[in-house]
Give the backbone structure.
Amino acid sequence: MNILSNGIDAIENFQSSLSVAEMKSYSGYILIKTQQVADNLVEISITDNGGGIKEEVRSRIFDPFLTTKSIGKGTGLGLAIAYQILVHKHQEKLESHSQIGKGTEFLIAIPINIKSG
């Protein structure tokens, strides 16, 4: 939920930086894809077309209390908690990729249990 909420905020912030002419051709989106990447592994991709994340921020995106939001809008704990649960507790994958002006993608890899019989 934190990734989706952040994506919505990124789209809204990016839209507010556009000119009236640019806004006419821009349509914000969040795309969620899942695919089985191995016999026992599913990858979830959550992509937005907001403004992207600067590298100096993206490299610290999972740090507790890091927020780019205004006071009262975010605590900087959502992604840190998600990272703690997925990566540290369950040894899963959570990573991000971003391009300024193009958007951000979060990748989550989790195992699946296939029961036969």
Q: What stands out?
A: The mean pLDDT is 90. Residues 2-111 form a domain with the Heat Shock Protein 90 fold (CATH 3.30.565.10).
